[in-house]
Amino acid sequence: MDAERSSVIRAAREALDSAGHHSVPLLVGTGGGSAKHTIALAKQAKEAGADYSIVICPGYFAFAMGGNKDAVKGFFTEVLDNSVLPVMIYNFP
C-alpha cells in the first residue's frame, strides 16, 4: 500500500509539473496506524514529490483513547517533531 501511495503522489507531481504548475503545492495524506508509520509515510511522500502532509489520528484512537487528550497530543507532537514535511492536522470528529 505504501508503494501505491508513493506512485500516486509521484504521478500527481509529474502531472502538475508537465502542465506547467511547478509552484502548485501538493498536500497529501500521510496518516498511518502509528506515529512511526505516519512519519515514514511523510518521508516517502516527500521523496515522491509532496510538499505538505495532512495527518489524522489513527482510527483506534477514538475507541482506545476516548477522551485521553494527552495521548492524542502525544501522537501529534511525535509526528510534528519528526516529520520531514510540514503537517496539517486533520480532525474527523
Structure in a nutshell:
The protein is mainly alpha-helical and 93 residues long. Helices cover 55% and strands 11% of the residues. The chain has a 3-stranded parallel β-sheet with strand order 1-2-3, with helices on one face.
Task: Describe the model.
The chain has 93 residues and is mainly alpha-helical. The chain is 55% helix and 11% strand. The chain has helices at residues 2-18, 35-48, 60-65, 69-82; strands at residues 27-29, 52-55, 87-89. It has a three-stranded parallel sheet with strand order 1-2-3, with helices on one face. The longest helix is centred in the first third of the chain and has 17 residues, at 2-18. The radius of gyration is 14 Å and the shape is elongated. The mean pLDDT is 90.
List keywords for this structure.
93 residues, mainly alpha, three-stranded parallel sheet, 4 helices, 3 strands, elongated
Rg computed from alpha carbons, rounded to a whole number of angstroms = 14 Å
The rounded distance between the terminal residues' Cα atoms is: 25 Å
- Structural class call reads mainly alpha
Mean pLDDT: 90
User: Could you describe the largest sheet, including whether it forms a barrel?
Assistant: 3 strands, parallel
Strand order of the largest sheet: 1-2-3
Give start-end ranges of low-pLDDT stretches: none
Q: State which percent range the strand residues make up.
A: 5-15%
Shape: elongated
Q: What is the count of helical runs?
A: 4
Give the H and E element order.
Answer: HEHEHHE
Instruction: Indicate the percent of residues in helices.
Output: 40-55%
Q: Please tally the β strands and state the result.
A: 3
